[in-house]
Amino acid sequence: MGKQATEMLKGTLEGIVLAILAKRSAYGYEITTWLREQGFADIAEGTVYALLVRLEQKGLVGVEKVPSEKGPPRKVYTINAEGSEYLAEFWRTWGFLAERLEQLRDNNNTSSSAETSTDEGRGN
């Protein structure tokens, strides 16, 4: 993943993790593994754990300690009502931004096509 994708991911990772938790409860390593399976190979486990702590501090997730067969209990995270509201707002914002970016791209493609046609018409 390039630097630009990494920076974009930083801005959306909270929403992505909440979307994962909206499907089912999970612990940090499960979330990291799923993200990597989805192509986010460069995501550090520490990044996910730090994010989960922030989500907990913001009151967007519930946490339950579940015994583990290997080592200390695991913290299992579940989205709560506030987290669901936050996620709904994330999706509204994402939709707004995606629409505007599509419009911008379409306008740029139309402009580029028009410029190319004009240039071709001039014999350039």
Short description:
With 124 residues, this protein is mostly helical. It has 4 helices and 3 strands. It has helices spanning 3-23, 28-37, 45-57, 81-121; strands at 26-27, 61-66, 74-79.
Describe the structure.
This protein is mainly alpha-helical and 124 residues long. It has one domain: Winged helix-like DNA-binding domain superfamily/Winged helix DNA-binding domain (Arc Repressor Mutant, subunit A, Orthogonal Bundle), CATH 1.10.10.10. Helix content is 69%, strand content 11%. It has four helices and three strands; from the N terminus they run αβααββα. A three-stranded antiparallel beta sheet has the order 1-3-2. A hairpin with a 7-residue loop joins strand 2 and strand 3. It is elongated. 15% of the residues are buried. The mean pLDDT is 89.
SSE topology:
Layout: H1 3-23, E1 26-27, H2 28-37, H3 45-57, E2 61-66, E3 74-79, H4 81-121
Antiparallel strand pairs: 1-3, 2-3
CATH class: Mainly Alpha
Total of helices: 4
Strand percentage, roughly?
5-15%
CATH-defined superfamily: Winged helix-like DNA-binding domain superfamily/Winged helix DNA-binding domain
Oligomer status: single chain
For the record, the count of structural domains works out to 1
**Helix share, percent:** 55-70%
The total count of strands amounts to 3
